[in-house]
Specification:
alpha+beta, Rossmann fold, four-stranded antiparallel beta sheet, globular, SHC Adaptor Protein, 3 domains, 7 helices, six-stranded mixed beta sheet
């Protein structure tokens, strides 16, 4: 339970509740009695962002159901009115209010999409007039960038897995060389729809880019996130493999030209893919990776705290021989 601010009702708070393992809920909560009133919940996805004004009053929540969406607890709040006006003016983009002056007269907004690099706007809150614009990547043109599309497929055990596919600007979008870009974390982190310089760089070189929010990723409730605990190199890896096979079956990916690449946990998954699926991947690239799971209990900053040790036991596991079986460093001969 995360209280955000006092409600207009005496003795109650507006809070984010993640206590039941499902997707996060926005509730009106009485901390004395424990009574809750549900204000908003999306059955598929968590709350991804909370926007507050200078009085710490929440005026907008963001959630990502393939694409970003918004819920306004107070639609008439000046910043909510501004946000809605910007959404009407700039269609099919993500809109965020990132700052405001202390008197509330001016605000800084950002707009972006996979094919629109971030653009920052200084806006008059009362008149809704855009006073100034600043582009984050002025040398990048939208027509040169590649579209990102949400995907969803069923893994081998029936779990529904989501992700994104970015395809290069080529006439024939079949049998493309493909880079599987695996996000790090892994727990609580997830790939989202939007402008991604790394994805666009790869797509500009002619590669399709596949991003998979395997079980254990964030954004879909604590139950989905916990489904990855103890499943490193197993079901979490199967989700990535099944996503690649989906892309091959769909015709977009050339089965003979696939690379798997990532950083941190993504690097672990890349090298795990190399030994678990040696006939599927032509290359594997690991950046700042962990390749020896037992070593995680001995080196680095995670095992320096009790909470870090508890996390490793829950997320990675405790059976040393099993951890070795799921570590790339002990499986190189399988490549």
């Amino acid at each position: 339970m995360q209280p955000l601010h006092r409600s207009d009702e005496v003795g109650r708070y507006i809070a984010v509740d993640r206590s039941d393992g499902g997707t996060s809920k926005i509730v009106s909560w009485d901390p004395v009695t424990g009574d809750e009133k549900l204000l908003f919940q999306h059955e598929q996805t968590d709350i991804a962002g909370v926007n507050e004004d200078d009085d710490n009053r929440t005026w907008m929540f963001t959630y990502v159901d393939h694409f970003p969406y918004y819920w306004y607890p107070a639609p008439q709040h000046p910043l909510a009115v501004l946000h809605q006006a910007l959404r009407q003016r700039f269609r099919n983009v993500e809109v965020d209010i990132v700052n405001q002056t202390r008197d509330g007269s001016l605000a800084v907004a950002s707009i972006s999409s996979p094919v629109l690099p971030p653009r920052f706007l200084i806006v008059d809150v009362k008149s809704l007039k855009v006073l100034q614009q600043l582009q984050a990547y002025p040398e990048l043109k939208s027509e040169d960038l590649s579209p990102m599309e949400p995907i969803e497929f069923r893994a081998r055990d029936g779990a529904m897995i989501r992700g994104y596919l970015t395809t290069p600007n080529v006439a024939d979008k079949k049998k493309l060389p493909t880079v599987v870009l695996v996000h790090g974390g892994p727990h609580g982190i997830y790939d989202a729809y939007g402008f991604n310089p790394e994805v666009q760089l790869l797509a500009s070189r002619g590669y399709a880019v596949l991003q998979i929010n395997y079980r254990g990723s964030g954004g879909r409730g604590l139950t989905f996130e916990a489904a990855g605990y103890g499943k490193w190199g197993r079901e979490m890896q199967d989700d990535i493999t099944d996503g690649v096979k989906w892309a091959v079956a769909d015709g977009v990916t050339d089965p003979k030209r696939i690379c798997i690449f990532g950083g941190s946990y993504g690097a672990y998954a890349a090298l795990t893919g190399a030994y678990r699926e040696p006939d599927l991947f032509r290359c594997a690239v690991g950046m700042s990776g962990v390749y020896d799971l037992p070593m995680m209990f001995e080196k680095g900053d995670i095992p320096r705290t009790d909470s870090g040790i508890r996390y490793l036991k829950e997320a990675v596991g405790t059976d040393e021989e099993e951890l070795k079986r799921r570590s790339p460093v002990y499986n190189a001969e399988k490549i």
